[in-house]
Amino acid sequence: MSASIERPDRVAFYPGSFDPMTIGHVNMVERTLRVFDRIIVALAQNVNKKAMFTIEERKALIETVFAGEQRLRVITFEGLMVEAARRHGAAAVVRGLRGVADFEYEFQLATMNNLLLPQLETVFLMTEKSHFFVSSNLVREVASLGGDVTALVPPAVHLALKHKLALNA
User: Fold this and answer.
1) pLDDT, tens digit (0-9, with 9 covering 90-100), for 41-67
2) Is 38 a catalytic residue?
3) Is there a catalytic annotation at residue 49?
4) Distance between CA atoms of 27 and 128, rounded to whole angstroms?
5) Domain boundaries, the chain
6) What pLDDT score does 3 carry?
7) Domain 11-128 belongs to what topology?
8) Which of 16, 58, 68, 102 gives a 20 to 30 Å CA spacing to 39?
9) Contacting residues for 48 by C-beta, under 8 A, at least 6 apart
10) Which pLDDT score is estimated for 166?
11) Is the pLDDT of residue 1 over 60?
């Protein structure tokens, strides 16, 4: 009879701006949870980027989209992503790839992260073909020009976008 050996949870760290969260992001979270025990969606506080939603609004939206998912936690962080991942016990950083241009940038980033924290792995997931063209930038642009982004974002995000754009009109 073999003894069962317990292993610590495998925690994935999914960093980004999520401004706003799209169906592509949701799909990445769902697929990551098939491989990892838990996921930390990590919102980077980037003062150099002009965001549509505040970091608090983005955090609340992600928590709403994944309400009831006990294996997901949303955090905010400043500074080096690898340090935030280390502090939260992450085994790997998860990044989505939409195309060759993404790969070049992500490969550079993964190489730098490996230099800074070699024990933190990077896992690349290819975006599903139905979400290949979706980006937060494109969603913001189309929505701000009056286009329908209903199919590109979760319902809670769609409502928040409509509200935000109405306030700024």
Assistant:
1) 999 987 677 899 999 999 999 999 999
2) no
3) yes
4) 8
5) 11-128
6) 61
7) Rossmann fold (3.40.50)
8) 102
9) none
10) 87
11) no
